[in-house]
Amino acid sequence: MRDTSDVDEGAGRAAAGGGRVDDELLGSARELTPSLYALSRVLRFEGMDEAGLWRLPPAELELVRYVHHEPGVTVGALARELGLHASNVSSTVRRLVDLGMLQRSPDPDDRRITRLHVTMKAVQGMAMIENAWADIFADALATLPAEHRATLTASVPALDALSEALRARRAGGAGGTARPKEG
């Protein structure tokens, strides 16, 4: 657990919806965030080597994962969802198309719109990476007491809900976060 005793929590702070976040929630968030960040780093920087695959930069891997889970997404929607500039996403998409990871296809209803889809190469690569991640986590879980493993497994629905709440917050532009413009 991180020491946050030097942080002035005061009477909470303004929440995205205009209310106040109480000190207990802020304390929980301060405790949870470093652990979740450390886990995300493991997922971003491990798995590809273990799966015997090429190493994609984390931003490219994130983009492929998103398109895999949201087939048919547009570059603009992808940029908004990932909090990136559309021009940067366009460049990354071009590179991933060149690598055979993504394919572009015209929208059947409006041929001016281009939809993104993963290729079979990307699907197979993602399966290998996710299997490697599962192996990495299984090795780590094996070192934990049974009650910790049970607690972590039971927390999956709560973590999924937290992920969705954070995604919705970002999509809504809450907290004064500027969303990139399409371009």
From TrEMBL:
<dbReference type="InterPro" id="IPR036388">
    <property type="entry name" value="WH-like_DNA-bd_sf"/>
</dbReference>
<dbReference type="InterPro" id="IPR000835">
    <property type="entry name" value="HTH_MarR-typ"/>
</dbReference>
<dbReference type="InterPro" id="IPR036390">
    <property type="entry name" value="WH_DNA-bd_sf"/>
</dbReference>
<dbReference type="InterPro" id="IPR052526">
    <property type="entry name" value="HTH-type_Bedaq_tolerance"/>
</dbReference>
<dbReference type="Pfam" id="PF12802">
    <property type="entry name" value="MarR_2"/>
</dbReference>
<feature type="domain" description="HTH marR-type">
    <location>
        <begin position="29"/>
        <end position="161"/>
    </location>
</feature>
<protein>
    <submittedName>
        <fullName>MarR family transcriptional regulator</fullName>
    </submittedName>
</protein>
<feature type="region of interest" description="Disordered">
    <location>
        <begin position="1"/>
        <end position="20"/>
    </location>
</feature>
